[in-house]
Amino acid sequence: MKKVILILALLLLFKPMFSDDPRSIMVFPDANSRMTFFSLHRLHEAQGLSKGKGVKVGILDHSFAMKSHPQLYAGGENFVEGGEEFLTDQEWHGYWMANTLHEVAPEAEIFALNTVPFEKPETHAEILAKAIDWAISHKIDILTYSQAAIKKEYKPILNAALDRAHRAGIITVFIHTGHPGNIMPTGLWSGKDDGREADVNIYHYDYSIVPIAEYQKLRSGEKTWWNPPFLSVSSTSPVLGGIVAMMRSIKPTMGAKECRSILQETSFPYTFEGERAPHAVDAFAALKKTMEK
What we know:
By secondary structure, the chain is α/β, with parallel strands linked by helices. Helices cover 38% and strands 17% of the residues. A hairpin with a 2-residue loop joins strand 8 (192-193) and strand 9. Helix 5 runs parallel beside helix 9 (236-250) and helix 9 (236-250) runs parallel beside helix 11. It is globular and about 45 Å long. It starts with a helix and ends with a helix.
């Protein structure tokens, strides 16, 4: 119970940080010169070919703040008992993921799916399965997941749901999920995750705006939780989800196998901070290849 209270307290603490008031945020002064996931993955060029129009993307997460950002979402659903506020009011992880995906594929339709059971983590796989079945019935095209790996004893529940999703034509881009039908992203590094190598590499952080109060701390040299770079493998899922949405907007019949093949075929090796990423995504090349198919 103490753990639950701490989580809720942290969510309430962070809530004021994410205001729609433009005075509450400040752009990093080097935002246009430093590498971002936009520059590395050639996303601006890719958006000249597609912006994800007509594609439905479901985000399996929590804290979407649908009330504060109704323009960001095409719809949403709560799958956690007593968790409605994490769909509608709390603004944290799910909102970051949705906002990131919207930056990549601004014309995709985003659905907020509240699926993180803070009080009963042992039910997480079951809740994800319910949300996946909802996505199947609502003809969602792509699902993203940016939370921790599901424990081994609950994997059969999630894997069965993923099997159903893939048979229905849904493309999943879950982090920490080794299911063979899932297109798994990771950051700019190599190595096994959940039993296998990731399929593609995505620049694993890029939050180029921070609250003014935190920005002032950075300018003064004070260490802060927001001190960039804010390492977040979470962001690799919505970035890849947005790229896949652009690809599927061009070719609606594209399946996961073809999508994975194109992403890897058009990728490039990249070394970042001493780590070798074997399959850094080139979104522009991937979209051009999709148009040729």
